[in-house]
Design brief:
alpha/beta; D-Maltodextrin-Binding Protein, domain 2; six-stranded mixed beta sheet; 9 helices; disordered N terminus; Transporter substrate-binding domain-containing protein; signal
Length: 257
């Protein structure tokens, strides 16, 4: 019995040593976003945009394998709120979201304007009170929707003159504007220019109606369930890409303050 006990101990020790010697399986991150120019968009059937090469540089430097996913914004946000090892962009950093994510680094600041159609008889807009008379297209779960609701705007109803009309992504939102289903959409100048270029549209058919009193600081962020080891590694290599000019090269033309 003593001999069998000794053999068992040897086997246990051998198994433990071998197990410790095996490298841990690499964690594959999910990088999630939406189809939203100018950050990410489809061009000739390929995913394009300035964030993709920047994220690729970041993840390679950090030694972290990843897969890229384009979902409706509500789904990307839900994944980043509840699943481990998820990166999300371009996420507006707000006081309400501050404790819900690990903030890796800022991408750009963007000023938001209301845009309508140039040839349409949209009434002049000189104040937020007049904005309330418009049908405004917004993306579900987007920070712009939160901003409108915080300022007393409501969703459209059969009896309302103006209000918020929700879409799943920016492409649908812009189609609603072009087809007259909404009067205005809140976007940045560079986002509108990118949309026109990618859609092969004359940007002269759109006109700026009103500058909204909001600027979005848009970030790359990690889900709260991501370990601090990975978060710190990503933050370190993000800073290195800022220092070597990679960040400026990727995003300087997008700053729209």
């Amino acid at each position: 019995m003593k001999r069998w006990t000794q053999r068992l101990l040897v086997l246990v020790c051998w198994w433990s040593t071998c197990s410790m010697a095996q490298p841990a399986a690499a964690t594959t991150f999910r990088v999630v976003t939406e189809d939203a120019p100018p950050f990410t968009y489809w061009h000739d059937g390929e995913l394009a945009g300035p964030v993709l090469p920047f994220v690729d540089k970041l993840m390679q430097a950090a030694g972290l394998p990843y897969s890229h996913h384009v979902y409706p914004w509500a789904r990307s946000l839900a994944l980043a709120q509840h699943a481990p090892n998820v990166l999300i962009y371009a996420l507006a950093r707000t006081p309400e979201r501050e404790a819900s994510f690990h903030w890796i680094g800022e991408l750009v600041d963007m000023r938001i304007y209301l845009y309508g159609m140039a040839g349409r008889n949209t009434p002049p807009v000189d104040s937020l009170a007049q904005v309330r008379q418009l049908r405004i297209g917004v993306i579900n779960k987007d920070v712009r929707l939160d901003w409108f609701k915080a300022n007393g705007f409501s969703e459209l109803s059969p009896t309302s003159v103006g209000g918020l009309d929700l879409s799943e992504n920016s492409e649908v939102n812009m189609l609603k504007l072009r087809r007259g289903m909404v009067d205005a959409v809140p976007v940045s100048r560079i986002a509108m220019q990118t949309y026109c270029r990618q859609s092969k549209l004359d940007c002269g058919q759109f006109r700026q109606l009103y500058p909204l009193p909001m600027t979005m600081s848009l970030y790359l962020a990690a889900s709260k369930k991501t370990s601090y080891q990975y978060v710190n590694t990503l933050r370190y290599h993000y800073r290195k890409l800022v220092q070597d000019g990679s960040h400026h090269q990727a995003f300087s033309r997008l700053n729209d303050g």
